[in-house]
Amino acid sequence: MLADFLDFCFEHMMKVDEFPGIQSLCMKFAYRMCLFYPEQMDELKRTLVAMETDYYIPATKGLRRKILSGKMKG
Predict the structure, then answer these.
(1) Per-residue pLDDT of the chain in tens (74 residues, 90 and over written 9)
(2) Which of 46, 48, 54, 71 has a C-alpha 20 to 30 A away from that of 31?
(3) Distance CA 53, CA 58 (A)
C-alpha cells in the first residue's frame, strides 16, 4: 500500500499538466516517505534530476532544488 502511494506521488509530481500545488505536495510526501526507506531516496533524487524544469513554476523548481541539495527538513 505504501508503494502504491509512493508511485502515485512520483507519477503526479512528474506530470507537467498537474496543478503546481499537487506537484509540490507529492514531492513533499515522496521525500518524507523516502526518509524511512533510504533505498528509495536514490530513486527520488534520480526522478527529480530527470524532471524537465522548463515546464514547472518557480515554487516547484525551488522545492526540487531544496530536496536535491539536502536542505529539506523532514
Answers:
(1) 778 999 999 999 999 999 999 999 999 999 999 998 888 999 999 999 999 989 999 999 999 999 999 888 76
(2) 54
(3) 9
* pTM of model > 0.85: yes
Going from the C-alpha of 41 to that of each of 17, 29, 50, 53, the distances in angstroms are 25, 12, 14, 20
Who's near 74: CB < 8 A, 6+ residues apart? 31, 32, 35
